Amino acid sequence: MLDWDIRKLRILRTLREQGTVTATAEALRMTPSAVSQQLTNLSRQLGVPLLEAQGRRVRLTDAARLVLRHAEAVFEQLERADAELSAYAHGEVGEVRVGAFSTAVPALVVPAVRALRATHPGVSVRVRETEAGEAYELLAGGEVDLALSLAAQAPEVGDGRFTRVELLADPLDVALPRGHGLAAAEGLRLAHLAGESWIFGGSGPWSDITRGACEAAGFSPRQGHSAAGWTAILAMVEAGMGVALVPRTAAARRDGVVMRELSSDRPVRHIVAAVRKGAEEGAAVAKVLGALREVAAGYGG
Fold first, then answer.
1. Chain centroid to CA 160: how far?
2. What CA–CA distance (Å, rounded) separates 33 from 40?
3. Rounded distance between C-alpha atoms, residue 213 and residue 219, angstroms
4. Sign of the C-alpha dihedral, residues 227, 230, 232, 233?
5. What are phi and psi of 91, to 5 degrees?
């Protein structure tokens, strides 16, 4: 029987994800020499070469990829075992560490925490605001237990490390200055705003979502101003500097802004939650996911 060392297998998996020994060492808070030594020992234990030189870098051998394919099932089963042991030992008591993007914290996570305090006071939630890419690094590294992101920023559905949960199709409403000629128009459609000056970020997922929604409605939006934060975007709309698509979860009341639901087209952005494969069976994680679903259901769409 081969000696399958779980700790060393995690190092090998992290190397696959990070690409270099140096980046792997930083992710795991180890030294590069310790990473190399552990992987050399694992190669010796398994009796197959796991790394091969590629210029100044190393790459995984076919044998290493075979090992990791089987190891993923082991990691999943260990997560499931941790979840079951936690449920056995603590029942509905436990801490869940959540990594979430900025909009999701006040819109989804905070209301879920409030609800859990009333229904399951033994479940505590520790929140960490983070960008999507970092959230999944933290999730893979065991530093958070649940990550929230836009679907476009989440790992692919086939990623064996995680279980994805579709949480919300967040409707996108149009923000108009209060005195705008279409602010009270019936049957407002996105195409009616084709000639407007639009406000959205210069790049990234929100730029893609805005452009994609407008192009699906038959026009390419003319970007008048660029901003990434919703406070700045809504302030510019209020000042009559343009119009914007705003997720319902991000909308904040401003006297000079009218939020209009579109009568057709009805673009959405998809928000997903993810946990490590198998961890969704843990009692505390399941309660947090349930609370997030309840909050999400209140946004419609």
1. 16
2. 10
3. 9
4. positive
5. 65, -125
Q: How does DSSP assign 139-161, residue by residue?
A: HHTTS-SEEEEEGGGSPPTT-TT
Distance CA 291, CA 115 (A): 7
In the prediction, which pLDDT does 300 show?
64
Q: Mean pLDDT across the stretch 39-57? A: 86
Two structure tokens written together for 299: 């946004």
Residue 96's contacts (CB-CB under 8 Å, 6 or more residues apart) are: 123, 124, 125, 126, 145, 146, 284, 285, 287, 288
C-alpha to C-alpha distance for 152 and 205, rounded to whole angstroms: 7
Per-residue confidence band for 76, with pLDDT thresholds at 50, 70 and 90: confident
CB 183 within 8 A of CB 216: no
What sign does the dihedral 25-30-31-32 (CA atoms) show?
negative
pLDDT tens digits along 120-145: 888 899 999 998 778 888 998 889 99
Summarised one tens digit per residue, pLDDT across range 229-253 is 888 999 999 999 999 999 988 888 8
**In contact, 127 and 105? CB cutoff 8 Å:** yes
